[in-house]
Design a protein that fits this description.
19% strand, rod-shaped, BirA Bifunctional Protein, domain 2, 2 domains, 345 residues, 7-stranded mixed beta sheet, 9 strands, alpha+beta, binds 3,4-dihydroxyphenylalanine
Length: 345
């Protein structure tokens, strides 16, 4: 029968196309071609009307059987393609447990930050407030209200980066004293420290840096004395350099304090016996301090007949260099990881 041959050739063509399909998309195209609305089977169905009554059911049945076979092959092929895809995915997503891992290098706070934090903690424990001030400061606060008028020779002690006639990069953290006292309005007691960056027009070398860090301290109250200053300095010296340390105060000069002192700490390296670090003296100079000059109190609104106070300023790099025997201040600012990593907090 011609139609039977026709059906067989359609089946053969479908079988071949299904076998060759490489993907689900291709397989769907094959299905549309052989089982869809425009398939060759439809043409056969249309020609049914020309067949005899006896032939019609036979051809109908054969056609349906052929379609069912093709559907079965397509289903099998679909399963096969799916299995292949899963196998491929498993292969691609396999974890190679022998591959070397990624190394993580956790950061650490900079040594100067560590020391600043330590000092802050000690002062917070004694009831101090931590203040901040701007690095770009006005001459009035950096100098004038600290008892350093324009022509004062002591201005030469601090070579200044001027931005214009009235604005500069602060040469010390002392202007925060002025800012705080003005803020408190001349009435409340003051008990603050202020850590921060300061700038000097210095040539950078092993002991000079045009930018460095200080911590300022200021206490103002009605009965603050030099004994309070000395006790406070002893606490901080021992906290930084060990509980066996002693301090001594030497007369000095700062325009913003009267009397002014240089503070020495007994050498932590030789316990005061004399070594290369303390230049055989047994003492190391660590900071400047004094009783707040009456002019400074008055300039910031405090009545100097009622209030008095003490102040101190300490260089953070100097403390770090002494404590860890660092011989070049530039080490703090070159971001050399080999240096920084030695001080894991
Ligand atoms: N401001 C001074 C400087 O940078 C340090 C200093 C000395 C601060 C004595 C003070 C002080 O508050 O009382 O050299």
């Amino acid at each position: 029968m011609a139609i039977k041959d026709q059906l067989n050739s359609i089946k053969e063509a479908a079988k071949k196309a299904i076998k060759e399909a490489q993907s689900m998309v291709e397989l769907n195209d094959v299905k549309a071609k052989f089982l869809g609305k425009k398939s060759a089977f439809n043409d056969i169905m249309k020609s049914m009307k020309d067949l005899s009554k006896e032939e019609r059911p036979v051809v109908g049945k054969e056609t349906n059987l052929a379609k069912r076979d093709i559907q079965t092959w397509i289903d099998d092929k679909r399963q096969e393609l799916h299995d292949l895809e899963v196998a491929k995915q498993i292969e691609e997503e396999t974890v190679d447990v022998t591959m070397p891992g990624k190394e993580f290098h956790p950061g650490t706070t900079h040594l100067l930050t560590q020391i600043t934090d330590e000092i802050e903690d000690v002062f917070i424990g004694m009831g101090y407030e931590v203040m901040e001030g701007p690095e770009m400061e006005i001459d009035e606060y950096n100098f004038e209200k600290l008892n350093l008028p324009k022509d004062h020779p002591a201005r030469d002690m601090q070579d200044t980066f001027y931005i214009n006639d009235t604005v500069l990069l602060r040469t010390h953290t002392s202007p925060v004293q002025v800012r705080t006292m003005l803020e408190k309005g001349g009435k409340e007691p003051v008990k603050i420290i202020c850590p921060g960056k300061v700038y000097r027009r210095d040539e950078d070398d092993a002991t000079h840096s045009h930018q460095f860090m200080q911590i300022e301290g200021l206490v103002v109250d009605k009965d603050t004395t030099m004994a309070d200053l000395k006790g406070t300095l002893l606490v901080i010296a021992r906290e930084m350099f060990g509980q066996n340390r002693e301090i001594r105060l030497r007369p000095s000069y700062f325009p913003f304090t009267e009397p002014s002192v240089e503070v020495d700490v007994s050498c932590h390296n030789c316990n005061g016996a004399g070594c290369h670090i303390c230049k055989q003296t047994g003492w190391i100079e660590v900071l400047g301090a004094g009783m707040v000059n009456n002019n400074v109190l008055e300039a910031s609104g405090y009545d100097s007949t009622v209030y008095q106070g003490f102040a101190f300023g300490v260089g953070v790099e100097r403390i770090a260099m002494l404590k860890y025997k660092i011989n070049d201040i530039r080490q703090f600012y070159t971001n050399d990881l080999r240096f920084n990593k030695q001080f894991k907090s």
